[in-house]
């Protein structure tokens, strides 16, 4: 499912907080079916960047190019609705609703499909994420690893072409970490484009096609 042409390119990303430049002409490409790691010190701006890419945080400037889309390069503002449809940001502590695991999944499905949800699709992602036995449990009572897997199940239901993950395995034990990474590998193999902010590379290197290192506002790319 890999392709040489990126599906989405960002150039000239600038962001300052209180006159301090966090992103300074940063640029990156995202490819279908590929996974890139986003590395950088604490405070380098990784979460800021991911939120800009997902259309959640307004940059001072950024140009976005959706390849294969008729319109030429667009500003962040203009492309925001399309970014919100295409790119899904997964927070380190997933945001879950009150109610059972299955409710959280059904709601995710209906949010994008006008109220109707397909029980079969929900059952499929429950089993994919290994949460069958917890289907009726309150989502907010799940362990950190289970919550992360539920967030991934929800992302899979939503079929977002691009997933941005903000430290998805921090605070997880080894086994949960491996399960989460295996789910990420399976999404990548289905053609999802992924960018994963992480500190500890263990396990991620194996599934990554390349790395971006963020320092002093710029992104430098290297092969995995
Ligand atoms: N809303 C804000 N207002 C002012 N400064 C902010 C704001 N959000 C982030 N910052 C600052 O921008 C810098 C980058 O923050 P960011 O959270 O993006 O870093 P990070 O690379 O994700 O760090 P970590 O590895 O600790 O998660 C930090 O110095 C942070 O304090
Ligand atoms: Mg962060």
Automatic annotation (TrEMBL):
<keyword id="KW-0547">Nucleotide-binding</keyword>
<dbReference type="GO" id="GO:0016020">
    <property type="term" value="C:membrane"/>
</dbReference>
<keyword id="KW-0813">Transport</keyword>
<protein>
    <submittedName>
        <fullName>ABC transporter ATP-binding protein</fullName>
    </submittedName>
</protein>
<dbReference type="InterPro" id="IPR050095">
    <property type="entry name" value="ECF_ABC_transporter_ATP-bd"/>
</dbReference>
<dbReference type="InterPro" id="IPR015856">
    <property type="entry name" value="ABC_transpr_CbiO/EcfA_su"/>
</dbReference>
<feature type="domain" description="ABC transporter">
    <location>
        <begin position="8"/>
        <end position="224"/>
    </location>
</feature>
<dbReference type="GO" id="GO:0005524">
    <property type="term" value="F:ATP binding"/>
</dbReference>
<dbReference type="GO" id="GO:0042626">
    <property type="term" value="F:ATPase-coupled transmembrane transporter activity"/>
</dbReference>
<dbReference type="GO" id="GO:0016887">
    <property type="term" value="F:ATP hydrolysis activity"/>
</dbReference>
<keyword id="KW-0067">ATP-binding</keyword>
<dbReference type="InterPro" id="IPR003439">
    <property type="entry name" value="ABC_transporter-like_ATP-bd"/>
</dbReference>
<dbReference type="Pfam" id="PF00005">
    <property type="entry name" value="ABC_tran"/>
</dbReference>
<dbReference type="InterPro" id="IPR003593">
    <property type="entry name" value="AAA+_ATPase"/>
</dbReference>
<dbReference type="InterPro" id="IPR027417">
    <property type="entry name" value="P-loop_NTPase"/>
</dbReference>
